[in-house]
Please model this.
Amino acid sequence: MATSKLLKVSDIFVSHTHIDHFIGFDHLLRLFLGRGKGLRVFGPPGIISNIEGRLKAYTWNLVDDYSFTLEVKEISEDRIKSARFICKDKFRRINDEDDSPFEGTLINESLFRIDAVHLDHLIPSLAFSFSEDFHINIKKDILLKYGLPLGQWLSELKRCIRVGMSDDHKIEVPLNDSTKIFKLGELKEKIIIITKGQKITYVVDAIYNTENAEKIISLASGSDVFYCEATFLEEDIKRAKDRYHLTARQAGELARRAEVKALEIFHFSPRYKSMENKLYKEATDEFNRSL
Model:
């Protein structure tokens, strides 16, 4: 992913800290150093110590003027424990004194909501679901027609709409050598299309059992897109059970029972290199199966 897109990230959600799911942390950390931004990280039990260990692996003697801060949220079954790591303090761990309750929702803001559940992967593995009430689209062709630029002002425009600002609220639009003032209602009418919000669910690294299946179906229910691991073929179901992973058929079943609109499978075992079409077919056949 392009650096410019990664630098827009504000929150990171870690399912678990097996190397293939956590190895990208150092890359993100390097990108954000010295940029005056912060990051929040949400993860399973142990994530605070995991991140502390990664940070201790490096030497931090030239970061006194860096304002970057990591805030880490450790999600247990019923509590959220927090700690901060401040770059200019050589990322010394600072534990927050008070835990907060966890009842299934990690973030609930005007822009979106993030829910999570713990799944059994022989260790806790978090699954996540992103939901938005409505989605705001910009008519870029109309922007061009009126000579309005792309830029940060569009994010502010979207924020004002989401929080319900009055149509008379003033929006400043920077032009080449000046600033033009528009009323929010005028911009909404000319350049905005509002559509139903999306729900996107992400599930990775979990064995198929009754408890996991019920949690996944509840979390993913009605999703527009359901990203689900499909590590093994059904013919290798014993291997899937031994490794605490799902088969492609099981991913298709979960998607069908959750009544999602689209299923995207991923996280295939290397044994299926050049055979991915079999995994896609198995998942799709089960997803589309009539009851």
